[in-house]
Amino acid sequence: TTGPDGNLWFTEFGSNRIGRITPKGVITTFPIPNSSINPDEITAGPDGKLWFTSSDQIGNITTQGIVTNFSLPHGGPHGLTTGPDGNIWFTEGNEIGRITPKGVVTYFSIPDITYPDRTTWPVNSIDITNGPDGNLWFSSDQQALGRITPDGNITEFLSLNASSFGGGIDPTGITTGPDGNIWFADSLGDKVGYQAVGGTRPTPTPTPVSPSSCPSLTECMRASDAAYGLDTDTFTLPPGMTFIAESPTQQRAHGFEAVALKDSKGNIIIANEGVSPGPIIGKTTAYESGSVITD
Questions:
Q1: DSSP characters for 105-164?
Q2: Are 199 and 147 in contact (CB under 8 A)?
Q3: Closest C-alpha to 90, from 126, 135, 49, 117
Q4: Which of 88, 62, 86, 59 is nearest to 5 (CA)?
Q5: DSSP structure class, residue 203
Q6: pLDDT tens profile 135-146
Q7: Count of helices and strands (H, E) across the chain
Q8: Separation CA 83–CA 143 (nearest Å)
């Protein structure tokens, strides 16, 4: 990160040091005394110091190399940034933390996130940035970005293709772009994406699917995703296929979505979204009303 002295500052994770490099390439490193905390992320603070995360602490270092550490009650911080309120904000598991320049720590729990298939999962924060809207934005491990106000109110934004079995985004690094949007690295899609600061996106609308746009069982499974759940009354089956059974309500609620169909040749086809996006041929007894499906 750029320091208040016009130099670049960095962490040395393995050697337990904080480094400084001038624009001309002169490097100076400062040991973190009486500790082996493995410094990680670093940012310029509101107080003229550089702040950094470590294995179980948050610390700061002056431009003269004087280090101060603050122990955290929960441990394990990762990303950090200076917030609009003059405090340091950081990510830590399923919480967002805030530490004042004097070392007072407050945590805010991240709510579980609910996918379109009605499954609910805990959210772990990854990286965080100061947004242009007066809020903090963070990446997470649940195909979503999050926004937290300086008062600690959290809103989560799922990606358009998100499901409980993946298929959306895997945001890691995050920052505010010069266009006023939130930009992030997507390690799942090997892409870079952005989120409008307004926090809006198109909302998928469940609609019936005609045979012309659902020519195969695979496409029917994808169509059922768009219809927010694998229910046979939300799409039309391909020509020549008849419905046999679908997953019990309890299994669908836990993200196991499957349907059994019979084709024109009498073959039983089981499409199991919990394992693959395409059809799987097999047999099962886990269907409603006790139906037994055989090869």
A1: EEEEEPPPEE-TTS-EE---EEEEEE-TTSSEEEEESSSEEEEE-TT--EEEEE-TT--T
A2: yes
A3: 126
A4: 62
A5: P
A6: 999 999 888 899
A7: 2, 23
A8: 24
CA separation for the pair 171, 129 (Å, rounded): 13
Cα separation, 47 vs 148, whole angstroms:
22
- In the chain the first and final C-alpha atoms are separated, in Å, by 61
Q: State residue 43 phi and psi, 5-degree precision.
A: -150, 160
d(CA 273, CA 167): 12
Mapped onto helix, strand or coil, the DSSP state of residue 222 is helix
Q: Which two tokens stand for residue 90?
A: 């950081």
Is pTM, for the whole model, over 0.70? Answer: no
* Distance between CA atoms of residues 112 and 149, nearest Å: 17
Q: Which amino acid is at 268?
A: I
Q: Extract the tokens encoding 242.
A: 């008849």
What pLDDT is stored for residue 272 in this prediction?
Answer: 52
Look up residue 176 and give its two tokens: 């505010």
The structure tokens listed for 157 are 């934004």
